[in-house]
Specification:
With 241 residues, the protein is of the alpha/beta class. It has one domain: 4-Layer Sandwich (Metallo-beta-lactamase, Chain A), CATH 3.60.15. The strands form two sheets. The protein has a seven-stranded mixed sheet with strand order 6-5-4-3-2-1-14, with helices on one face. Helix 5 runs parallel beside helix 6. The chain starts with a strand and ends in a 10-residue tail after the last strand. The model has no long low-confidence stretch (mean pLDDT 96). The structure holds nickel (II) ion and manganese (II) ion. Manganese (II) ion binds next to helix 1.
Amino acid sequence: MPITLTWTGHATWLIETAAGRLLVDPFFDGCPTASMKAADVSCDAILVTHGHFDHVADLVSIARRTKAPVLCAYEIANWLGGQAILNSVPMNIGGRVSVPGGTAKMEMAFHSSSLPDGTYAGSPAGWLLDLEGIRIYIAGDTGLFSDMERIGRPQAGRGIDVAILPIGDVFTMGPDDAVEATRLLRPRIVLPSHYGTWPPIAQNAGAWAERIAAEQLAEPRILEPGGAITVSGRPTAVPPA
Ligand code: NI
Ligand code: MN
């Protein structure tokens, strides 16, 4: 079954499979470029990369209203527990759990992580999702790191179908390192994220995409907030009759 990925702006993504909808890093009402309001979001699970406000601003309200499980660092789960959000799934780097449509593995990221009230939020993370035969890597907020080669290494013949990478610079990788990240990860499709929200992280995504395409590293796709792409799995070999 194809999967639909919608960028609602900044680093917030909705990933829709036949089995349910995943919400990544809910940041809507305070986001200048958000394509929708937190009150209008429905989801079956919430994935959090780290504790910074531009990734969790609407986490508590959406978790409370939808009662969707929140996959997040152990420390963030504790912080949610203090606000009576008790359906979180505390995790740490390397852990893999089930989500609607497949699995989610918490991967490493090089960044910092504290919650808006200053609470320590554990390690920042990325997510490696295996959903209905499609592998999606969400880097989260991170600088470039050489383990991206490992993350992109095919497992059971399956490499990354879609990589979502920050290109905003200043707080994360910028365009140059996001080109190198694409080279290491070897995804089929690459999508830029975490840019254009405020002046310090304004970027020319089109120019970045041209570099990705010119070097034939992946198929770059540029979305506007509210835009979506639908991804199908790689063709699989037909078993002999
Ligand atoms: Ni951050
Ligand atoms: Mn951020």
